[in-house]
## 1
Amino acid sequence: MPGLGVLVVLSLSLNLHTCLGFPSQLVNLDKELGGGGNSSQGAHGCGMCEPDLCPETRGCRAGLVPDACGCCMECGNVEGQACDPGNRSVYYGLCGTGLRCQADPRPAGGGEDEEEEEVCVCDEQEAVCGSDGTTYMNMCQFREAAFSKAQLRTRGRGPCTAVPVIKVPPQSQMNGTGSRLVFLCEVFAFPMALVEWRKVGRDVILPGDDPHISVQSRGGPLRFELSSWLQIEGAVLEDAGTYRCIARNTVGFVSASAVLGVLGAEDLSSFLANRDPERKLSDYNQNFY
């Protein structure tokens, strides 16, 4: 069939002419015909790889990783950032140096049917003491800090030995008699700190023998942290005063204070009316802990 042969030759000529005008189509045609070509990922529409045209990368705190086409380098994702598993960037990108992509280790906020998000997690979870006296929770956090601090070095494995630091101090508050009051104090320390509560003017560690005052402590919310609560049930006028949270370890101690005001029903109503006329007494009696 001579006519059919002419049509095939004419069709190939037209395709070749079109591909010469559009190089990316030539690469795709080459792949369709079984050729290797010089394209990174034809499925992503990457086209020819020209390293000289790759964009400049700056401020990559987690180092460099290959882009979706495997031609250029881009910033790697940092700890806690969403990521693509495997060694190919598809949507979120690849994790940077010393990080791996896995299911988010933090507690999920949704129900059982909620899909687990994959995030970048540091391979080395041991704490590191920096030459700046700061404790970094893992090596990846240290690397991020060292990116902007050229002189930063590791002083040793494990947290820095230092005087405790009060991360969340107790807050001053005002409330009425009979109310339930809570002071919170969060402390970071290594070696671990012992936290105690005192009321200024009383030479006793609370709760002492006072049945309506209690103290509770537990580890967290983060590593090397301790949270302590002072709770007053059924407050009376005599409970007013200044309360101190004191944290001690073998290196030293630190303290933070808060003032408690306790008013009778009439005085409290007058106080609230002058401070915020639209706020009700019940708004100040809520238990936030």
## 2
Amino acid sequence: MSSEQLVHDVEKGNIVVIREPSPKNNHWKCLSICSFLLLIGAVTVFALLQLDAFGSSEKQDSKLRGNSFSDHLPGTMKVQALRSGKPAAHAVASSRDSSQLKWTVDVIPSLLENGMRLDENENSLVVPSTGLYFVYSQLLFHKDNCKKPLLLTHNITCWSSDFGSEIELLKSIKSVCEEVSSNKKLWFESIYQGAVFQLNKGDRLMSKTNFPEYLDYTHSTQIYFGVIAM
């Protein structure tokens, strides 16, 4: 029960009752303040632990990446290849010779992981093990004028030891410069294709075109050829 004090108001001749705060109320206020402080502390500790865990995962991933050119390739393909241990390759066009389409893995953002290799003599990607693979390729064409109609082709083929011959896996055809004029007409055209195939160990994959002289080597990273094990 709260205590009371009687105070005599001299000027008005009245008696004023002053109620003192209850010790019980003070107790609940202290508990509320302590609970609030504990809640803030718990949230702070949790946030610090999360930041530390995130930093640890970043360090672990950086150890996995190593120092190859593929370190600069972001995205899920590289992460999946490194963590799963499955073969993966991403080659880009070499701009050294514009008269033919040559693939390279010596520039960013190329990728060659887990047994995949590029045979530079045959200009092909070599499959290291039997299984399902997603094969993809994109070619980017460019010309400053339209002097004659063109049919651009993009072929993905596979030389298989089982058949002893080269087999066509994918083929795309696009027409450009259908309306020929004497005026210069700048044009760009890209052809992308990809699909899943059952490949055997030692199979060689190739991506070709009938007009390599029209490839846009100023954007060579947009001309690519890749394989991902499923």
